[in-house]
Amino acid sequence: MDEFTTNNNISFESLPKTAGVYCFLNNKETIYIGKAINIKDRVKSHFLQPSYRDNLFMSKVTKIGFIETGSEIEALILEANLIKKHQPKFNVVWKDDKNYFYVALRYFIPQGKLKKDKMPYIFITHQKQDKNTEYIGPFIEGNAIKKSLKFLRKAFPFYTSANHPKQKCTWCHLGLCPGPELFENPPSPTRTTPRATARRESTAGLREYKKNIKKLTLILKGEKKNVLSSLKKEMNETSKKNNFEEAAKIRDKMHALENIMAHKNVISSQATENTGWEKTNTILKRLLNLKNDVSRIECYDISNIQGKQAVGSMVVFTNGQPDKSQYKKFKIRMENEPNDIAMLKEVFTRRLSHKEWTLPEVMLIDGGIAQINIAIKMKNSDKDTKDIKAISIAKRNKELYIEGIKKPLLLKNLHQSIYNLIIHLDDEAHRFAITYHKKLRKQELGLDNR
User: Fold this and answer.
1) Fewer CB atoms < 10 Å away: N or C end of the chain?
2) How far apart (Å, rounded) are the C-alpha atoms in residues 372 and 351?
3) UVR domain spans which residues (predicted)?
4) When comparing pLDDT for 70 and 410, which is higher?
């Protein structure tokens, strides 16, 4: 990626403390792109305080790249354009109709106007459904793009709908809306204002509005330099015609644009993972028919070879993130025979006997209908644990079993954030179990010196 400055290894020291865009690479493949107020601090947070999403790909990162923008709005715009260009795997995997934002540009013909008088208006949307609408994005942070448009609207006023009241609206008085004039039909001709003159003035206003919208869309596509160059050219040409008042307006617009792009704060200074978990939590509650929020999820797995050195694992996610201080491992005590259900029963018996351990809202088990049934039986045997929701993941058939629902759900049909969470939990439980199993095998063979 030629536009990024990259490190040959994972090092924080060379990262700048300015606003910009960063990327994570797996060898030559760009797997994630993000923006930041402070690139160094944001990149460090991915490694030192990873979210449940970060844990899906941080182990794959071999290089870090960055581009300094010096401006939060430019970082926001550059991030959107680079994601669109490179389609990083771990940006795209979370993309759905409700996660990303687009700036939409749609044309309309005001009532009583001709087709050639069509005008654009601008709005923000989640969905790209209209073939006749131009979409700019995707933008990841909704509040940031809304703030950016509000600031840019000061330099390039625009309409946000195909209707406008006959009088000036609130946005007009704030200088953010072009006003009702462009919606009006040319005034009737008079002795001092012939029809041709009235029509010409109306057309000139529309032409100027369309030019402003074109400049705004170019800025959102990352072409600020071209816009400033175009404005400078217009100012010089206007000055040559001795239209100094108009030239001064263009100069003021240039200064306003440079000030907006350089100094406005639009990016949230806090990491957005908490907001992401709140959304995931809401979806998960609806999926599992839960009344209360999900703060703790436990996931269980069994690892053994024909019953030998059998172990069980329990991993814990708190608010969607691995809580490794709460992980537990169980060395199976029952006779060495390959019976995963009996082993799970032992693990659940031992886990639920620890009244001092915090209870989860959800228990996820690696397995199918037999595994979830034993979990339901064990938790329902105690009134204190019967409200825990049991679910299980059958990876062979790629299905999710949910307590209280007869038919399993296909994993591919789950909301992407829920799919990511379930897979991450299961992978982590499997990793923790197999690591302990391998350690016991090494000890048995005398290969472990510890």
Assistant:
1) C
2) 16
3) 225-260
4) 410
